[in-house]
């Protein structure tokens, strides 16, 4: 953890326009609701360069608005600094996990604990599937998974 006592988490998916910004916004809302804002640094990023500079997918944004959550994020790629500054990197699927672990091996003094966000799911649904090529309901599924996982992660870290 950082010297300030703040914890930090980076949510990661392939493009940083669907799953990881949803997880980031869900976790941010949970932290705010519990009055822990000053204790957490929260962000999200992509393993790829596909969507750098893009806002969240409009279907994910619509889903989040239905749950009274506003996403305010612009897609970016994971950087070397992220491996040095985030306590946790929580990713969405096995491909993200492999990419992050491979990248972390090239970073001296990597401090990030790299895990699947789904490893915190009380329903044991370890993979959060990419809804990009799916339907609106798939974004709701991602939201529900992220909500369960983020609640569990926050409980374990608090």
Automatic annotation (TrEMBL):
Pfam families xref list: LMWPc
Keywords: Cytoplasm, Hydrolase, Protein phosphatase
Transmembrane segments: none
Active site: 13, 19, 130
GO terms assigned for molecular function: acid phosphatase activity; non-membrane spanning protein tyrosine phosphatase activity
First and last residue of the signal peptide: none
Primary localization class, coarse: cytoplasm
Subcellular location: Cytoplasm
Highest taxon, organism lineage: Eukaryota
Enzyme Commission code: 3.1.3.2, 3.1.3.48
Enzyme class: hydrolase
Catalytic activity: O-phospho-L-tyrosyl-[protein] + H2O = L-tyrosyl-[protein] + phosphate; a phosphate monoester + H2O = an alcohol + phosphate
SUPFAM superfamilies found in the cross-reference section: Phosphotyrosine protein phosphatases I
Record GO cellular component, one term: cytoplasm
Residue intervals of the Phosphotyrosine protein phosphatase I domain: 7-156
Role according to the record: Acts on tyrosine phosphorylated proteins, low-MW aryl phosphates and natural and synthetic acyl phosphates.
Family per record: Belongs to the low molecular weight phosphotyrosine protein phosphatase family.
PANTHER family named in the record: LOW MOLECULAR WEIGHT PHOSPHOTYROSINE PROTEIN PHOSPHATASE, LOW MOLECULAR WEIGHT PROTEIN TYROSINE PHOSPHATASE
Name this polypeptide is given: Low molecular weight phosphotyrosine protein phosphatase
Lineage summary: Eukaryota, Metazoa, Chordata, Craniata, Vertebrata
């Amino acid at each position: 953890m950082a010297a300030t006592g703040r914890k930090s988490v980076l949510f990661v998916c392939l493009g940083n326009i669907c799953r990881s910004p949803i997880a980031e916004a869900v976790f941010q809302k949970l932290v705010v609701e519990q009055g822990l804002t000053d204790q957490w640094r929260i962000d999200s990023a992509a393993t790829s360069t596909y969507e750098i500079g893009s806002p969240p997918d409009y279907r994910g944004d619509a889903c989040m608005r239905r749950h009274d959550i506003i996403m305010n994020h612009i897609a970016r790629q994971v950087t070397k600094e992220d491996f040095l500054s985030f306590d946790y990197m929580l990713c969405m699927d096995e491909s993200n996990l492999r990419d992050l672990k491979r990248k972390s091996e090239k970073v001296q003094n990597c401090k990030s604990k790299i895990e699947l966000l789904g490893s915190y799911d009380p329903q044991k649904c370890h993979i959060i599937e990419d809804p990009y090529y799916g339907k609106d309901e798939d974004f709701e599924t991602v939201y529900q998974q992220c909500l369960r996982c983020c609640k569990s992660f926050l409980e374990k870290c608090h």
